[in-house]
Design a protein that fits this description.
6-stranded mixed β-sheet, D-Maltodextrin-Binding Protein, domain 2, 19% strand, elongated, alpha/beta, 12 strands
Length: 277
């Protein structure tokens, strides 16, 4: 019986260790306390201007996500640690305790099954078009005309929205965003539609075209993901910080500062505060 009891204890310990090793398991402890103990705030980053931009020569990071991270780290009295990842790996990086947060990660029902999201949004972006400079566009109805060609990414929210609002236009559907914008770049389409921030790098690369958010506006909020844990101090503090930055216009200021450094006039692209649209 003694041997059986000892074996049961060993098996229980092995089971507990295995559970802790599972990617979706919520770790004990608090991210809030871990940041204080470590003396650093770890944020995920990926090459995706205007949110994150790694200079190929210096290796220095900039972008809106970096500015938000620096401000949070300064308030917390810790160092900022940038951990390179990808959009697809960000959730796993949070679960594995490699990062403490990832900015500009949209809250979706699927992601919310694995991580937490603060209540306050970080920013808003909207469905937009990049068009030829001589095309006068203010509403979707301005594009809803025979002879107008619009490129979209097939099977997406963009495809559905443009199809609904521009039934008279010719809609070119492509499997990827790259093929979508390439159609505009080559002159096959009069306009290409995407959510507006990715169009900024395209506009800069091409040196032409204007970005417009047509009405009625199809807006979407973006947020920040944090690790799911019993102690909600870190999640709630991030929410308070994001709301403060947004409400005081600081988020927009950081965004504009990056655009200027990136060589883009902020007045030529839509803002990320929906109140300014």
């Amino acid at each position: 019986m003694q041997i059986i009891r000892r074996l049961a204890v060993v098996l229980a310990m092995v089971g507990a260790i295995a559970l802790q090793a599972q990617p979706g398991h919520t770790q004990e402890g608090s991210t809030w306390q871990a940041i204080q103990d470590r003396g650093s705030l770890r944020i995920g980053a990926t090459q995706a201007p205007p949110w994150y931009y790694k200079d190929p020569q210096s290796g220095a990071w900039s972008g809106l996500g970096i500015s938000v991270g620096k401000a949070m780290a300064e308030t917390l009295g810790v160092e900022l640690e940038v951990v390179e990842t990808t959009w697809g790996n960000a959730i796993a990086a949070l679960q594995a305790d490699k990062i403490d947060t990832m900015f500009v990660l949209d809250a979706t029902p699927e992601r919310a099954m694995a991580v937490d999201f603060p209540a306050a949004p970080l920013l808003y972006y909207a469905l937009a078009v990049i068009t030829n400079d001589d095309l006068d566009v203010a509403t979707w109805e301005d594009l809803n005309k025979e002879g107008i060609t619009i490129a979209v990414t097939q099977g997406t929210t963009i495809d559905a929205y443009v199809t609904q609002h521009c039934p008279n236009a010719e809609i070119l559907r492509f499997p990827t965003n790259s093929e979508n914008v390439a159609a505009f770049q080559s002159g096959r389409a009069d306009a290409a539609s995407l959510f507006h921030p990715p169009l900024i790098a395209l506009q800069k690369k091409m040196g032409r075209g204007k970005i417009v958010i047509p009405t009625p506006i199809r807006a979407s909020a973006s947020s920040a993901a944090v690790r799911r844990e019993a102690d909600k101090t870190w999640r709630d503090w991030v929410s308070t910080a994001l709301a403060y930055y947004y409400d005081t216009n600081q988020t927009q200021v950081w965004y504009d500062e990056f655009l200027v450094a990136f060589g883009v006039d902020p007045l030529t692209v839509p803002p990320i505060r929906k109140e300014l649209w």
